[in-house]
Amino acid sequence: MSENFIRFQKVTKDYGTVRVVEDLDLDIARGEFVSLLGPSGSGKTTLLMMLAGFETVSAGAIVLDGQKINDLPTYKRDMGVVFQNYALFPHMSIAKNVAFPLDMRGTARAETAERVQKALDMVQLGHLADRLPGQLSGGQQQRVALARALVFEPRVVLMDEPLGALDKQLREQMQLDIRDLHHRLGLTIIFVTHDQDEALTMSDRIAVFNHGQIQQCASPREVYDHPANRFVAEFIGETNLLEGTVSAISGETLTLTLPGGASFQSHGLPGFSTGDKGLLSLRPERIDIYPQGEAPAGVNTLAGEVTDTVYQGDHLRVVIETAAGRIIARINRKVSEWENGAKVSLGFRAQDGWVIAP
Ligand SMILES: Nc1ncnc2c1ncn2[C@@H]1O[C@H](COP(=O)(O)OP(=O)(O)OP(=O)(O)O)[C@@H](O)[C@H]1O
Ligand SMILES: [Mg+2]
């Protein structure tokens, strides 16, 4: 019963006349780490609140391990929650905070003490059990919140931007800690984040939200390399978009002809027919830059002129004006550097492009 541990079936949420989650289907397997990523107001928190039981479902069903839970009270859902605004109790010691979910469940005193110690050790805070939350750093407090969410060994852990308030270094440390806990304890985690790098690093799958609907739910690699539509292509990472017409199809390779006459071979979504409009999504780091006319045979090429070069530490961001419009490339400084005004040829392989519907 590992598949479909959690199922959202045509789930809709209305606040008055405003629909904030619409007909949403999502299946999550036991032990999976799924991130919800999307613009502000797209319904991520609302979905988590419905799953946790803090919000009602307007239509559709939420199923947990084969049981419909729409009307199940929160405390019977057995979920650990770490919400950004779900603060620690300031007047209680760290140990008392972590014990809270066990006290609520009437767990025996000796067992509580043992479990609290174990949960605090897990987040490496066992030595601070007697302090008050105010005597801890922000990152330590987040770890206590994590221990509190895990102490009763929930089936599912829901996290809503749990690392949002932390600085970059601590955030990256906590990302690793959470990943590690996920693997060690086999937890099923649903994790809301604004940060696409965080989603790409941590998740088994990413559900990309927009306007209360999932645009695509797939592995980080799939979402990045093979976006399902324009929204996903533009929302995750940076991309160049070139619009044209599909002029030939051979196996998984499409030929896209641009209005100016240039044509490119590229992989793309299935389902295109010759004559369809197509939009080529080309990631900046998949483009190579050569002196004009010197691109190797067998790659797509496009002539242009370098108009700007931005130093970004580990790479250079190069802006190139071409007949097909402005193209952004990211290049490795070890390989080449380009002056403004340089006449260049851009090159990319068919498998590095991705054609979607305009
Ligand atoms: N209690 C409420 N009453 C009315 N509208 C609400 C309520 N809670 C949320 N909304 C609206 O529902 C929509 C989705 O909100 P939600 O909090 O789920 O978005 P989100 O994706 O979590 O955004 P963010 O990334 O900013 O946290 C928003 O337009 C929001 O204004
Ligand atoms: Mg939110």
Can you walk me through this structure?
The chain is built from eight helices and 20 strands. With 358 residues, the chain is α+β, with helices and mostly antiparallel strands. The protein folds into two domains: 6-231, Rossmann fold (3-Layer(aba) Sandwich), CATH 3.40.50; 238-356, RNA polymerase II/Efflux pump adaptor protein, barrel-sandwich hybrid domain (OB fold (Dihydrolipoamide Acetyltransferase, E2P), Beta Barrel). A hairpin with a 2-residue loop joins strand 11 and strand 12. The site of adenosine-5'-triphosphate has 11 residues, from helix 1.
Hetero compounds = adenosine-5'-triphosphate, magnesium ion
The low-confidence parts are none
> First CA to last CA: what distance?
40 Å
The major β-sheet equals: 6 strands, mixed
- The CATH architecture name of the largest domain reads 3-Layer(aba) Sandwich
Q: What average pLDDT do the residues reach?
A: 92
Number of domains: 2
* CATH class (first level) name of the largest domain: Alpha Beta
Q: What is the count of helical runs?
A: 8
Q: Choose one word for the global shape.
A: elongated
Protein structure class: alpha+beta
Radius of gyration: 25 Å
**SSE succession:** EEEHEEEHHHEHEHEEHHEEEEEEEEEE
Annotation keywords:
single chain, 358 residues, alpha+beta, OB fold (Dihydrolipoamide Acetyltransferase, E2P), five-stranded mixed barrel, 20 strands, 23% helix, 36% strand, binds adenosine-5'-triphosphate, binds magnesium ion
